[in-house]
Amino acid sequence: MDRLLDRAFELLLAACAAAVVVGAAVIVGYVVGHGCRAISLPYLLREPVDSGRDGGIGPILAATACVTVLSVSLVVPIGLAAAAWLTEFVGPRSRTAAVVRHGLNVLASVPSIVFGLFGNAFFCVVLGWGYSIASGACTLACMALPTMIRAAEETLRSVPLDLRRSTAALGMNRETAILRVYLPAAWPGIVAGVLLSLGRAVSETAALLFTSGFVDRWPRSVWDPGRVLSVHIYELAMHVSGGNRAALTAASVLIVLLLAINAAARWALPRLVRISS
Known about the structure:
The structure is a single chain. By secondary structure, the protein is mainly alpha-helical. The chain folds into two domains: 2-37; 39-276, Orthogonal Bundle (MetI-like fold), CATH 1.10.3720.10. The protein contains twelve helices and two strands. It has helices at 2-35, 41-45, 58-89, 95-109, 112-126, 133-157, 161-169, 174-185, 187-203, 206-209, 229-239, 244-276, and strands at residues 48-49, 54-55. Helix 9 packs antiparallel against helix 12 (244-276). The radius of gyration is 22 Å and the shape is globular.
């Protein structure tokens, strides 16, 4: 009887896993199958024409790259500094650290639309940046920071005790130990946190609807508005009559970007583990 229950439970888990894989394959297959035919080098470089129904997505990709790079550039140093403070400078039973960790957990569960409203009120209105790439990137950084901090914190905590004892025996201060020993040893987990933040930044829509703007022209600086790829897909699908074909093509590009990021992570992480060890 117990063996029968174990077998049934195993089949149930396998069915759930298969459902997830099949569902993802159906979604990716439908979108890419209907949208990849129009993808070409001119499509990736030209400007949109006729509200995005024709032309390309050159300015859209440029705005997406600017928002993503700027947000990750903000997330990485701030996230590493916060994780190092929680791990190395605050005791594990500190009330301050407990409050900070609870706040990070709460922020990680806040819907992205709330971050968008905050970014619009603070970055666009209070700071006077208006709809701009800078406003969108800072809003995305606020969204991605909790994930980055917790990932980096857990990775720093997993640094082997022998390394910590070695730094103490050599008389290193905490700053030198963090920069020269702990961060290099924790590099694979940190890269994983960065890639998670990057994937969220590339695919985010709701927060950028209120911050980066809808303009589909080439951005000249971070203070210009820019329509990112996810917002472009939303606009084509919801507000442009006859824009479904163009939306599927743009969605195919987004899926390819996300798959490329995941493939890069799967390729790089084992090598970083070997290098760090």
